[in-house]
Design brief:
Blueprint: E1 5-9, H1 15-28, E2 34-39, H2 45-58, E3 62-67
Parallel strand pairs: 1-2, 2-3
């Protein structure tokens, strides 16, 4: 079974928060992949895509995915 760190950012990707978290993870584990999830209805999808690309280059292995917001009660 493969292991990875996964986190979901609601309402867009706060770059400063993401960088702090990723630096902390990489300080203790440079090998396991990290998966960043952002909601596909976030207000600033273009800025999120640019931020994710930057984070992917800096903190590889890292994957970013946009996921739909769950609707329901």
């Amino acid at each position: 079974m493969a292991e990875a760190y996964v986190t979901l950012f609601f309402g867009g990707l706060p770059l400063e928060v993401a960088e702090t978290m990723l630096r902390s993870l990489r300080a203790v584990d440079a090998r396991r992949p990290i998966v960043l999830l952002t909601l596909d209805d976030a207000d600033d999808a273009d800025a999120d895509a640019v931020a994710c690309a930057r984070l992917q280059r800096r903190f590889a292995p890292l994957r970013a995915h946009r996921v739909p917001r769950l609707r329901g009660t």
